[in-house]
Amino acid sequence: MNANIEKDYFTDYGVLKDPYEYFESMRDRGGVYRSTVRPDVIIVTGFEESVEVLRNAEDFSSAIAPQGPALPLPFEPKGGDIREQIEAHRNEFVGGDLLVAYDGQQHKFSRSILNRLFTPSRLKANEEFIQAYSEKLVKEMVAKGGCELINEVATPFVTLVIADLLGVPEDDREHFREVIDNAPPPGNLETEGMVMDENSPLVIMGGYFYNYVTERRENPREDILTELATATYPDGSLPDALEIVRLAIFLFGAGQDTSAKLLGNSLRRLGEDHELQAQLRADPSLIPDFIEEVLRIEGSTKMTARIAVRDTKIGEMDIPAGTKVMIAIAAANRDAKRWESPAEFKLDRPKLREHLAFSRGPHVCAGAPLARVEVRIILEHLLENTSLIDIDEEKHGDKANREMDYEASFIIRGLSELHLKLSA
Amino acid sequence: MPTVKLTRVDGQQQDLDVDSTGTLMEAIRDANCDELLALCGGCLSCATCHVHIDPADFERLAPMSDDEDALLDGVENRCPTSRLSCQLWLDDSHEGLKIQLVETG
């Protein structure tokens, strides 16, 4: 490939299939460069530079994180400080009312409510459900000799785990799963952004959560939804009911695809590498390190985006206010300056958990502990209940001619389907 | 808004204003102290916002939860006055608190 010809990250299906080759070909332009096909976008591929931007919430706003850096801004940036302009137009950014897009105090306040959901004691309670449900799912799949992992297992699994964490009544859970099954992933290549209409799963689930929150504020019970509905901000004020609704449905939107795809990426690797699979089966205590290395080498989020709110710098490059920045997480996690032999899969990397798969700084993924627990547990069950997990060659071709479809998303890295053969 | 006395890992000292509506971890992070990794963002899952409190100031803080205690147990350089800064909400009564950043991760 000619390294000097830049493909369009946002629309090129070759890049979708192998974003890593694309990022490697771009890396010799430096850890920070201005895209030639999208001259209004700065692309950050360096690990250090990515951390620098992700931690710098003073100079960079997250307002464009959901819509991505390819869509035009809803205003013409003027001057060396555009914070006021961003706030004035916040509702015009696609997904601008999602937690990932918040800045400053609004973000800090909403995040404080979310953080309480993912504490160790809360996760421990959730773990009982995760154990029971994953065991049931795995045994069903092993009994029939195989499965299509993403839709039959991963998606219902992660969706119902979040529903359990939030205390959604059982009768409603199945309906949640149905609406999510029928929806496209975020960051669709065709639409260059998220589409929200009345059939969007997040909108439908939002209706349920609005009822939960208003009902429990009137009649508190001893349940998680009541805790969520009555949680206060750090200054003691009660959030608007709609804000709680937005947080709850955001968890489904953010957690569902990313965790399901992480499970897919993990099992693809185990299905291809039987030696590694046998190693984990013999010593399940290696599973957490395995998950971290999958997160680093093929995490389910390829990139996120920021916009400079005032004139600043990334590394040595001057970045004027209004500049859109793409932080290529998938590239940073393979930066040879930070990771020795970055394309190699290794379980014993020092400081492995410092990868950026869950981002870094104020917006670091709140659900990371949950993702780690749920993927670990279902992998434990899968390995324990099988002698071999293999890629189904009838569906994906033999090893030399593998055919895998990836979700058409510029944000998400994950298989749309993964057919597995499971031998007891 | 209290001001605390922070000693960085490299020994450098600085005064840090801590917003009472946020945690100490957020204040340290937002002051660009990069050695404080704070990988999990404040949900008690990583212990990479570990700090040592000056023994003379330790009792001025609200007691820790069982979750925090359990997480600190997994940290190599835990000391009798260790805390996770993501669990510390400070107010004016904490003026002048002395905090030492330590190696994390």
Account of the protein in words:
The complex is a heterodimer of chains A (424) and B (105). Chain A is of the alpha+beta class and 424 residues long. Chain A contains 16 helices and ten strands. Chain A has helices at 13-17, 19-27, 47-55, 83-88, 104-115, 120-143, 149-166, 170-181, 201-218, 224-230, 241-272, 274-282, 287-298, 329-332, 368-384, 393-396; strands spanning 32-34, 41-44, 60-61, 146-148, 304-308, 312-314, 317-319, 324-327, 388-391, 419-423. In chain A, strands 1-2-8-5-3 form a five-stranded mixed beta sheet. Chain A has a three-stranded antiparallel beta sheet with strand order 4-10-9. In chain A, strands 6-7 form a two-stranded antiparallel ribbon. Chain A starts with 12 loop residues before the first helix and ends with a strand. Helices cover 13% and strands 20% of the residues of chain B. By secondary structure, chain B is α+β, with helices and mostly antiparallel strands. At the A-B interface, helix 5 of A face helix 1 and helix 2 of B.
Sum this structure up briefly.
The complex is a heterodimer of chains A (424) and B (105). Chain A is of the alpha+beta class and 424 residues long. Chain A contains 16 helices and ten strands.
Separate helix tally of chain B: 2
The radius of gyration over CA of chain A amounts to 21 Å
Structural class of chain B: alpha+beta
By oligomeric state, this entry counts as heterodimer
DSSP helix fraction of chain B? 10-25%
Q: What portion of the residues of chain B fall into strands of 2 or more residues?
A: 15-25%
Number of helices of chain A: 16
Number of strands of chain B: 5
Overall outline of chain B: globular
State the order of secondary-structure elements of chain A, H for helix, E for strand. Answer: HHEEHEHHHEHHHHHHHEEEEHHEHE
The pair of chains with the biggest contact is: A-B, 34 and 25 residues
Distance between the termini of chain B: 29 Å
Read across the widest sheet of chain B, the strand sequence of neighbours is 2-1-5-3-4
Low-confidence stretches of chain B: none
Give the strand order, joined by hyphens, for the main sheet of chain A.
1-2-8-5-3
How many strand segments of chain A?
10
Given as residue ranges, the uncertain stretches of chain A (5+ residues, pLDDT < 50) are: none
Specify Rg of chain B, calculated over alpha carbons.
12 Å
Task: Provide the succession of SSEs of chain B.
Answer: EEHEHEE
What profile does the largest beta sheet of chain B have? 5 strands, mixed
Mean pLDDT of chain A: 92
